[in-house]
Recover the amino acids of this structure.
């Protein structure tokens, strides 16, 4: 019997916008919260913080390496810096500083990337961040967040601000379907089971959470009971929920708008191998995309409910009887 | 209690002791960077015993001035000077680069929490100092930040991102010191990637620039006073130094950028530094 939970997926704000709003709320709560941006504040929505707290906002120009290390200096001196840019720039151009000035000494800096994944659309691959989960997770001590909707973004950015230690969060450009009610509780490192199921588990993050919920509905109509779990935290992984899903459903699909290499899927596969081995399939990217509308790209590069459902059928065919 | 100032005569004596410590540490470790440690001795002594407001008994004092060794490979001079100031045991300096030592190859706050930053990847120190200076500015603190760079190091692009930021934002509680000893790992700076005219470069980024003999304690003392009195601009002090200063066979010798002296060379160097 398939799950009966019915999700009505209404479009909410983009997770980048929710990040901007969460920053303002944090800024009101704690005057040590400061923000650095690299000439993209209108796109990252740190402009909201800038408007509210001009003294605590630092425009770094188009110079991400310096921005990240200035953030580290602010953190060394007791501030709680959020440094933001497009994911592809803050992570790739700031990586060496995130490594040597942040991860290695373990300073209390939060890096937030917006415009993650291919769903940014027309700007094309130079602006599309599809490697940053791999890079962020490679940094010892970092918590890596990947919220799916505005509610989880607001809550997790707040949690990041209260956590002492480095955090990276990836957010998206597109308006994102609302998954959660306003009273949902979130804890970094604790994945959330959205729908129970017994035949297969779909583990998703970011935009793919909504697609996975839709895929579950398709599968339910075919008599397949799929569990759906939102991994809003990619590091540290919720090992218990993974082990339980592997043991109880015996088949796992992981879906993410990121390269399969080094992504959530391979990280989950490690936990599955260590706890309760089972068959797995991966929905993700295998290379660089191109310019087009977000809808066309998500279709062409296999990031839709249809693709998640197909992976679920495939993994079920491989599941030992 | 805040660090007491030392006279220039006292610092002249201390400089010899610090140089001996550098040679002994690197000799005992069998690896390390003597040349750029020896060139920076007077700058660090001036900062720690004349210029900076700091308290070795209370290293996390919120309003302290901060020193960041951006050229982290010169860690021996930092450790030896901090030992003189009382931050760390002088009798353990010879554990440098050995397992579990607080005296890691490059400065590491995990092992030595009184350090202001972990460094070693070149180009980051000015940015770190700027972040600390911004925090002080927000808090209305008198704290100033000092970052020391190598002259080869300023080939790193991030240095100029930071320089541009500081000039534009008029961060006048930051001082960058360039240890201009004219040698980097592969040879003379002019033969690798010339960085002159250094003074013009910093000036064009909006910095007040002081060109000074980096081994002249009185001149350095005056330069840091001038920096502190400079409002509305960051200051860059171009300290003209001699790589390997104080040991005849190391002076101006690119070999001793990153090569430890042999036991015999240690002996000869220590004799020269009596």
């Amino acid at each position: 019997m398939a799950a009966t939970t019915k999700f009505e997926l209404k479009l909410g704000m983009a997770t980048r916008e929710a990040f901007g709003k969460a920053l303002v709320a944090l800024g009101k709560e704690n005057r040590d919260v400061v923000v650095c941006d690299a000439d993209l504040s209108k796109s990252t929505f740190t402009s909201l913080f800038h408007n509210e707290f001009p003294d605590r906002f630092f425009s770094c120009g188009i110079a991400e390496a310096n921005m990240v290390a200035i953030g580290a200096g602010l953190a060394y001196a007791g501030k709680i810096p959020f440094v933001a840019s497009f994911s592809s720039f803050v992570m790739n151009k700031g990586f060496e500083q995130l490594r040597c000035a942040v991860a290695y000494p373990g300073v209390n800096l939060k890096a937030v990337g917006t415009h993650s994944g291919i769903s940014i659309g027309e700007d094309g691959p130079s602006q599309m961040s599809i490697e940053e989960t791999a890079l962020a997770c490679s940094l010892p001590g970092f918590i890596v967040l990947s919220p799916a909707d505005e509610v989880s973004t607001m809550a997790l950015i707040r949690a990041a601000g209260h956590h002492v230690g480095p955090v990276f969060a990836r957010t998206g450009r597109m308006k994102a379907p609302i998954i959660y009610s306003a009273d949902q509780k979130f804890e970094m490192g604790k994945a959330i089971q959205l729908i129970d199921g017994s035949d297969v588990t779909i583990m998703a993050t970011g935009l793919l959470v909504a697609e996975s919920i839709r895929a579950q509905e398709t599968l339910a109509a075919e008599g397949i009971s799929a569990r759906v779990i939102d991994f809003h935290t990619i590091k540290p992984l919720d090992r218990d929920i993974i082990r339980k899903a592997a043991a109880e459903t015996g088949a796992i699909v992981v879906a993410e708008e990121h390269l399969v290499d080094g992504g959530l899927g391979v990280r989950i596969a490690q936990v599955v191998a260590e706890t309760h081995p089972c068959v797995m399939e991966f929905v993700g990217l295998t290379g660089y995309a191109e310019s087009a509308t977000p809808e066309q790209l998500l279709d062409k590069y296999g990031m839709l409910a249809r693709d998640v459902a197909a992976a679920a059928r495939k993994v079920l065919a491989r599941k030992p009887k | 209690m805040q660090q007491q100032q030392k006279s220039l005569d006292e610092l002249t004596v201390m400089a010899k002791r610090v140089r001996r410590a550098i040679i002994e540490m690197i000799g005992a470790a069998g690896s390390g960077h003597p040349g750029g440690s020896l060139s920076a001795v007077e700058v660090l002594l001036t900062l720690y015993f004349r210029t900076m407001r700091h308290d070795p008994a209370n290293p996390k004092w919120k309003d302290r001035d901060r020193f960041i060794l951006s050229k982290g490979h010169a860690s021996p001079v930092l450790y030896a000077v901090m030992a003189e100031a009382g931050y760390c045991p002088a009798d353990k300096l010879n554990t440098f680069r050995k397992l579990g030592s607080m005296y890691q190859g490059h400065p590491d706050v995990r092992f030595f929490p009184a350090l202001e930053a972990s460094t070693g990847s070149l180009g980051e120190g000015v940015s770190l100092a700027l972040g600390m200076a911004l925090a002080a500015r927000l808090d209305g603190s008198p704290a100033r930040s000092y970052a020391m760079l190598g002259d080869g190091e300023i080939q790193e692009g991030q240095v100029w991102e930071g320089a541009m930021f500081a000039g534009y934002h008029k961060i006048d509680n930051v001082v960058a010191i360039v240890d201009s000893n004219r040698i980097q790992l592969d040879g003379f700076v002019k033969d690798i990637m010339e960085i002159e005219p250094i003074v013009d470069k910093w000036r064009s980024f909006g910095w007040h620039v002081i060109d000074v003999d980096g081994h002249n304690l009185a001149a350095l003392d005056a330069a840091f006073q001038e920096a502190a009195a400079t409002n509305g601009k960051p200051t860059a002090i171009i300290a003209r130094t001699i790589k390997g200063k104080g040991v005849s066979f190391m002076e101006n010798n690119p070999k001793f950028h990153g090569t430890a002296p042999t036991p015999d060379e240690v002996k000869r160097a220590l004799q020269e530094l009596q």
Notes: Chain B touches chain A through 34 residues (CB under 8 Å). The radius of gyration of chain B is 17 Å.
